[in-house]
Amino acid sequence: MRIVLVGPPGAGKGTQAVFLAKNLSIPHISTGDLFRANISQGTELGLRAKSYMDAGQLVPDEVTIGMARDRMQQPDAAGGFLLDGFPRNVAQAEALDEMLGEAHMKIDAVLDLEVPEEEVVKRIAGRRICRNDSAHVFHATYNPPAAEGVCDVCGGELYQRDDDREDTVRRRLEVYHTQTEPIIDYYKAQGLVTTVSAMGKVADVTKRAMSALPGS
User: Fold this and answer.
1) Structural domains in the chain plus CATH codes
2) Catalytic-residue membership of 127
3) Top enzyme class of this protein (predicted)?
4) Span 103-121, mean pLDDT?
5) What are phi and psi of 158, to 5 degrees?
6) Which residue out of 88, 122, 123, 208 is catalytically annotated?
């Protein structure tokens, strides 16, 4: 099965992608992983991507599409895959359809993880990271430390990343609405989209997502 997972920042796409891919026995292909792998391996596409990133510029669609094409052609993706963070815009969605069409394949389902905008802001802006170990993550509302500003694990200082500040989160949401959300209408025209509430416990969201897939 070939699945595209979409949703705003803070919807839990990364978490759900891992569980869904495991349940379906297909690889989880994320844009972030593609970039890191290509850059660390020093591939031509990775070097091109790094040059744009180092200059503070967006990586062009053709570079991202090239990385995705290479990954989807690997043997473990022959039986399907779950895409997380790609396609990011309509041009990439069209390129993906063209790539798959050349191989006589197609996307089987698009899962749209839905979260109210204010919940997104609350989820991300409340996040606090330990300066000593970024794996120690707390949340002002959902998982507060015993002592405010102090990591329960090691006693390190907890801080809010610049990316997690409310004004930054709202700008990220604007980018999502402008660039990525249009792919939902693109796929709706193909009858592929199912909206899944991403509210509640992680396991419950996974169950809803699995139930939304064709043949479930």
Assistant:
1) 2-211 (3.40.50.300)
2) yes
3) transferase
4) 96
5) -95, 140
6) 88
